[in-house]
Design brief:
This protein is an alpha+beta fold and 342 residues long. It contains nine helices and 15 strands. The strands form four sheets. Strands 1-12-13-15-14 form a five-stranded mixed β-sheet. Strands 6-5-4-3-7 form a five-stranded antiparallel β-sheet, with helices on one face.
């Protein structure tokens, strides 16, 4: 994905993106439509790769958007109401064409920013309202956003990057909450410009607080909310099946490659989704397409802290006690989980 469109294919005019894309049929292979071209950072000979790993969500499992995004945002609004936000947020209609990946949220000033590689502010929105060039100059006098400003953990102190398909509904929900605060009779803008103040209760809600609350709401949606149950009950509404996927996985195995699945999703959810996209197409058990499977991987923490595993009982979805120590490849595809995920 080149980031120039929202995940459902709509083009966002808010962020200065154009939909004037030439017809693919009118171009040669060398001048193929940009959205159908593959861009790489360096050359790589795949013959030298022995292990091929795949994520599940938005990789092997192609979710139908904007339906998936709208459902996720709906449940997030419900969680925000539980945190004290107004009931009216749950009546918000999701706008799939608004959010695009690659935006940055300024948690200090409450703006979503589209930056160039050097940090120059190209476009900005507060809520769903596009800021004028005059507004941008007032908030960012140099027209640059200080990307190098770091916190103690090495991350940006005031900036939050939204760069995955999971992030587009978060952008919309944050923007909707800010729209509500901007129009609210209860809150007024804080003197420092970093949030809103309620004089009746002497309480302040900063833009950073809004983001923390939205992030917590989405974490609940993906961990304990009804979203997974709905997907498991009606996978046909949420997931598109690719008839070429079984051929790809078989091709890799036939050519001596080790193929594995690495997902943050729990086993019971993974089992339903993978059955839908593989079993129903071929009649073959989905686990047979992989040499091993890792669920609840806790990425990106998984990549930084080593690889101890607990073996999953595929009948119950529960993890066995103790860490798995065998170096021998099992006859039946084993399923592991990262131990700190429990």
């Amino acid at each position: 994905m080149n980031g120039s469109t929202s995940s459902d294919g709509h083009v966002s005019k808010v962020w200065g993106l154009t939909s004037d894309i030439p017809d693919v049929e009118a171009h040669s292979v060398a001048r193929k439509c940009p959205i159908d071209r593959l861009f790489v950072n360096r050359s790589l000979s795949l013959d030298t790769i022995s292990y091929y790993g795949f994520d599940m969500d938005y990789t092997l499992a192609e979710y139908n958007t904007p339906y998936m995004e709208a459902e996720t945002a709906k449940y997030a609004f419900e969680r925000l109401v539980e945190l004290g936000y107004p009931e009216e947020l749950t009546k918000t209609k999701y706008l799939p064409e608004f959010a695009v990946r690659g935006l940055i949220f300024d948690k200090k000033l409450g703006n979503f920013l589209k930056l160039d590689l050097h940090g120059l502010v190209l476009t900005a929105c507060r809520g769903t309202r596009k800021l004028s060039r005059k507004d941008i100059r007032e908030e960012y006098p140099t027209k640059f956003c200080k990307l190098q400003e770091k916190n103690g953990n090495g991350g940006s102190r005031f900036l939050q990057l939204f760069d995955t398909l999971f992030d587009t509904p978060k952008i919309f929900v944050v923007s909707t909450v800010i729209d509500w605060l901007e129009k609210s009779q209860q809150y007024v803008k804080s003197p420092n410009g970093e949030g809103y103040f309620d004089h009746d209760t002497s309480s302040e809600i900063t833009y950073g607080t809004v983001w923390n609350d939205v992030k917590a709401a989405f974490d609940l949606v993906h961990s304990k909310g009804p979203l997974h149950a709905n997907i498991m009950g009606h996978p046909e509404l949420f997931i598109s099946r690719n008839p070429h996927l079984p051929q790809l996985l078989e091709y890799l195995k036939e050519h001596g490659k080790k193929v594995f699945l690495l997902t943050n999703s729990p086993y019971n959810f993974t089992n339903v989704v993978m059955k839908y996209i593989l079993d129903d197409l071929t009649g073959k058990q989905w686990t047979d397409y992989f040499h091993f499977i890792i669920v609840r991987a806790c990425k990106p923490k998984f990549f930084a802290e080593g690889t101890p595993f607990r073996l999953i009982n595929k009948s119950t979805g529960a993890a066995n006690l103790g860490l798995h120590r065998s170096d021998t490849m099992a006859q039946v595809t084993p399923v592991f989980c990262y131990p700190s995920s429990f």
